[in-house]
Design goal:
- This is F-box domain-containing protein.
- InterPro entries: F-box_dom.
- Pfam families: F-box.
- By secondary structure, this protein is an alpha/beta fold.
- The protein has a domain of 40 residues: Up-down Bundle (Monooxygenase), CATH 1.20.1280.
- It has 13 helices and 22 strands.
- The chain has a 15-stranded mixed sheet with strand order 1-4-6-8-10-11-12-13-14-15-16-17-18-19-20, with no helix packed on it. Strands 2-3-5 form a three-stranded antiparallel sheet, with no helix packed on it.
- Helix 2 packs antiparallel against helix 3.
- The chain is globular.
- 25% of the residues are buried.
- The C terminus is likely disordered.
Length: 471
């Protein structure tokens, strides 16, 4: 019977089984053995040493020999091709009752892994969490170059063989590289020079300590990189422009600015960055660094990640633009501290081709009531809107950050009237989502022979109605 069921279907079933059940299953049938092994040995998690206050520790020789045997098993001809991901991390304490001791040569197991690394011919992802990689380790990594590499606070320890470092320049042929900085671990400059610019397509960096001018000068252009994500300090914005210019083909740019102080709230990306990312399609980040990219005719999607007031957001747009519009932006996602009907109208005028608009607001209930009353009278959305969602956060409970006494007894909006006004304004609209306290308007339309189906949930009451097409 097992031969009648496609392997893909069996794998979907097996993926939901506990590891112990998979082991037992692999003993029942030759076919199940092969299928279950693709899951049992897909991920190699290896701890090459223990990290303690006393230093890096290894077990005594018997423990090292046991771990070497485990590595030989994983690197065998039968198992190695099944490995898809490999994760290195230290043990943060020596196992209870173990015979671990501080080692003079703590990288014995680490380098043994990388001596066998080339056998993992189908490796897709490698990650190292708080691991010191030696020169030999990096040589092994570069030989395999899995498509995706994640380094979580990883050091490169070149105390030995540092003179051979130039041989590794641009030797890491990965398509995706992610470096996450942890406290006390920041030698990103040693990693960045390893990346091959002809292979890298996505780069994510915790960029808390900008590279020196010398390192940036030596970096080549990365002509094929499409996705770039950075975490930076606000006071370093002016220093990262030369680095960003190394990625002229970036289409998706995400920037997380850490720790804006009140004095920095109006700090935009410096004007020297006017030539950055000429074919940018998607921007994700604070509104302060957005205006410099608004002139890109290729820009289609914007997500604002730090909460501005709608007034600040509009003022920032007006200050940077000669004409109040960007004709090509079709998607906007923003979280406001407040929102007025007037400011929403200005924003929609800036982006007249919006087809998707998602807004979250935190403000007193009475302002929401005023907004929705005006919004029902004049929806002001671009006529081509297809998906509109707005969530208004506040509370009736004192002590909640969104509490206001004005929330009590505020007027409820007329949801059917609001829905009809939006449909009249935007004939092609397909979804409307309005969430406010215990009030929910959820509406979806689908055109077809049976017309348009409308669902409204209002204070836990659901009303379903069917309207003819074009009605």
């Amino acid at each position: 019977m097992s031969s009648l069921v496609p392997n893909e279907l069996w794998l979907e079933v097996f993926e939901n089984l506990p590891r112990d059940s998979l082991r037992q299953l692999s003993l029942t049938h030759t076919k199940f053995k092969g299928l279950s092994r693709t899951l049992l040995f897909a991920h190699l998690d290896f701890k090459p040493y223990a990290y303690t206050r006393e230093g890096l520790m290894l077990p005594h020789q018997a423990g090292i020999d046991s771990r070497m045997q485990r590595l030989d098993f994983w690197a065998s001809d039968e198992i190695a091709p099944l490995v898809r991901t490999c994760r290195l991390s230290p043990a943060y304490s020596a196992p209870m009752g173990s015979d671990y001791a501080v080692a003079e040569s703590p990288y014995v197991l680490l380098e043994a892994l990388f001596e066998r690394f080339a056998r993992f011919t189908r490796l897709e992802r490698f990650s190292a969490a708080s691991i010191r990689l030696t020169h030999m380790s990096v040589v092994g990594l570069c030989r395999v170059s899995p498509p995706s590499v994640l380094i979580f606070g990883g050091f490169l320890d070149y105390e030995e063989g540092i003179e051979q470092l130039p041989s590794l320049t641009q030797a890491l042929n990965v398509s995706k590289f992610n470096f996450v900085r942890v406290r006390g671990a920041c030698n990103l400059h040693r990693w960045i020079v390893l990346l091959n610019p002809n292979h890298l397509g996505a780069l994510s960096l915790s960029y808390r300590r900008p590279f020196s001018d010398d390192i940036v000068h030596r970096l080549p252009l990365f002509p094929h990189l499409r996705k770039l994500a950075l975490e930076v300090n606000p006071w370093d914005l002016h220093r990262i422009i030369p680095f960003l210019l190394k990625f002229p083909a970036t289409q998706v740019f995400s920037i997380h600015v850490v720790g804006y102080s009140p004095a920095d709230k109006e700090t935009p990306l410096p004007a020297e960055g006017a030539g950055l990312f000429p074919i940018l399609k998607e921007y994700i980040g604070p509104y302060q660094t957005l205006p410099i990219f608004l002139s890109r005719q290729s820009l289609l999607r914007i997500e604002v990640t730090r909460k501005p007031t709608s007034g600040h957001f509009v003022a920032q747009l007006r200050e940077q633009l000669q004409t109040p519009s960007n004709a090509n932006v079709t998607s906007l996602d923003v979280d406001f501290e407040d929102l007025t009907h007037h400011d929403l109208g200005v924003i929609c005028a800036f982006f007249p081709q919006l087809a998707e608009l998602k807004i979250e607001v935190s403000t007193p209930f009475v302002e929401a009531t005023s907004f929705f009353r005006l919004f029902a009278e004049n929806p002001i959305l671009p006529p081509g809107m297809e998906h509109f969602a707005i969530s208004w956060r506040f509370s009736h409970a004192a002590g909640d950050p969104y509490y206001s006494p004005d929330n009590q007894g505020a007027e409820m909006p007329d949801l059917p009237m609001l829905r009809d006004a939006l449909v009249d304004r935007c004939p092609g609209i397909r979804t409307i989502w309005i969430l406010r306290d215990n009030i929910l308007l959820k509406w979806r339309s689908s055109s077809g022979e049976e017309g348009i189906t409308t669902n409204i949930a209002h204070e836990d009451t659901t009303v379903e109605s069917s309207e003819p097409s074009g009605g």
